[in-house]
């Protein structure tokens, strides 16, 4: 964390005001550090809590949720002025707390009083409607900025690459992007019913999903997974529902060999093998990545899940790390701008810029082209990103198909809308998930 400090001149006259000032100082340091260093907020705050163990669970919650709230509503509250000015930063904290419906109303009101905008306090409804339109009206009233719009909650460069014609669809997307999705997970090595029972024994509320038989919704509560038996014993794996769509689209067949060409820490590799084992299929997964630490993490997760049919083959050069023409299925979950995950990482929409999107397609196409060489005749090539931008998705696939006529798009059924399509986009508002894109191609010759 950097050494920037908020110059606070306010004097506390109550215990609540003292806590409000202390929180504000800490949150400012974290917030300014993220903006200055461009480091992810979850990493910055994790490092802070690791170094400052004095905070109890309530303090940690106030600090963490206030920090992420600032980023979630930054498109509006940055219009209040410079966050480095004391009165304005207190106003930003109060605005964010109100928009987020945070339960620490006493702290919010102290922030509001310190911001010299206490005259608007009687007009603030508690709790505020979850509608982003209602929240916009409240912010306009609070801030006296009538020009604020819902589009401002996402950066201009996002809208340049994610063109949505319908105002209703745009509103639904912003509504989703302004809320946190639940923690999604999968059951593996056991039925969902058995895993739900095991979670219940640890007093963890969870439920299934209508879409996939192994999906589990863990809600929004913070959970220490290392104290959850279902997780430590390998029966539960955290994976967003949109991400789970990818493995379901892959649908690995009997005794098939799959290559996860950009595996990262292996969430989809584990899912592919889990899907095979659900039907008694015995196949194998090879996982590759350029990052050794990610592959090591995959091996740890596979060991926890008692999976023995996953092996690794790191990318060490431009040459294929696996045998060409050898796989029934190849998954390319390509590096991308990750704007589909902005619900969980609202800071990234403000610390990234348009280059996060525009610099990726050339790399994505190159990886897809190289990885396609591993698909045997009749096999499947699946391309996926956690991006919603066309140039990372449809444009990359079309460029690949133009130069690889021996691959053809497969028709897919969208698991949430049931529409038939060849290029499937999971929008966050469709099933309370992240955003994701996926296509499946088959090698014809």
From TrEMBL:
The active site is at residue 386. One of its GO terms (molecular function) is methyltransferase activity. Residues 171-444 form the SAM-dependent MTase RsmB/NOP-type domain. The keyword Transferase applies. One of its GO terms (biological process) is methylation. Keywords: Methyltransferase, RNA-binding, S-adenosyl-L-methionine, Transferase. It holds the Pfam family Methyltr_RsmB-F. It comes from the Bacteria. SUPFAM superfamilies: S-adenosyl-L-methionine-dependent methyltransferases. InterPro entries: MeTrfase_RsmB-F_NOP2_cat, MeTrfase_RsmB-F_NOP2_dom, RCMT, SAM-dependent_MTases_sf. Belongs to the class I-like SAM-binding methyltransferase superfamily. RsmB/NOP family. This is RsmB/NOP family class I SAM-dependent RNA methyltransferase.
């Amino acid at each position: 964390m950097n050494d920037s400090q908020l110059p606070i001149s306010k004097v506390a006259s109550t215990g609540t005001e003292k806590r409000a000032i202390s929180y504000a100082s800490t949150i400012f340091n974290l917030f300014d550090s993220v903006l200055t260093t461009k480091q992810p907020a979850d990493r910055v705050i994790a490092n802070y809590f690791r170094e400052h163990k004095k905070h109890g669970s309530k303090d940690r919650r106030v600090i963490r949720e206030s920090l992420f709230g600032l980023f979630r509503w930054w498109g509006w509250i940055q219009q209040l002025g410079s966050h480095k000015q004391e009165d304005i930063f207190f106003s930003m904290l109060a605005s964010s707390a109100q928009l987020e419906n945070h339960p620490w109303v006493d702290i919010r009101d102290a922030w509001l009083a310190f911001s010299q905008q206490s005259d608007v306090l009687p007009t603030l409804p508690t709790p505020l409607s979850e509608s982003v339109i209602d929240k916009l009206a409240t912010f306009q009233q609070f801030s006296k900025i009538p020009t604020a719009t819902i589009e401002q909650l996402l950066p201009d460069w996002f809208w340049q690459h994610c063109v949505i014609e319908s105002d209703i669809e745009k509103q639904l997307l912003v509504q989703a992007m302004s809320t946190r999705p639940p923690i999604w997970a999968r059951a593996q090595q056991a039925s969902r019913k058995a895993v739900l029972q095991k979670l219940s024994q640890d007093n963890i509320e969870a439920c299934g999903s209508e879409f996939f038989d192994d999906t589990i919704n863990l809600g929004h509560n913070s959970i220490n997974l290392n104290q959850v038996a279902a997780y430590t014993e390998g029966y539960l794996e955290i994976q967003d529902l949109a991400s789970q769509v990818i493995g379901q689209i892959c649908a690995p067949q009997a005794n098939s060999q799959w290559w996860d060409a950009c595996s990262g820490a292996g969430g989809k590799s584990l899912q592919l093998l889990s899907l095979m084992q659900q039907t008694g299929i015995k196949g194998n997964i090879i996982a590759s990545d350029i990052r050794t630490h990610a592959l090591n993490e995959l091996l740890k997760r596979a060991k926890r899940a008692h999976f023995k049919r996953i092996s690794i083959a790191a990318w060490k050069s431009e040459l294929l790390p696996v045998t060409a023409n050898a796989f029934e299925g190849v998954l390319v979950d390509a590096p991308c701008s990750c704007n589909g995950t902005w619900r969980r990482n609202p800071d990234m929409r403000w610390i990234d810029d348009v280059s996060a999107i525009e610099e990726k397609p050339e790399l994505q196409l190159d990886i897809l082209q190289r990885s396609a060489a591993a698909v045997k005749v009749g096999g499947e090539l699946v391309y996926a990103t956690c991006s919603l931008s066309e140039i990372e998705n449809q444009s990359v696939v079309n460029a690949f198909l133009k130069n690889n006529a021996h691959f053809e798009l497969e028709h897919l059924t969208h698991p949430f809308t049931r529409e038939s399509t060849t290029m499937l986009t999971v929008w966050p508002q469709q099933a309370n998930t992240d955003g994701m894109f996926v296509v499946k191609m088959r090698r014809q010759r």
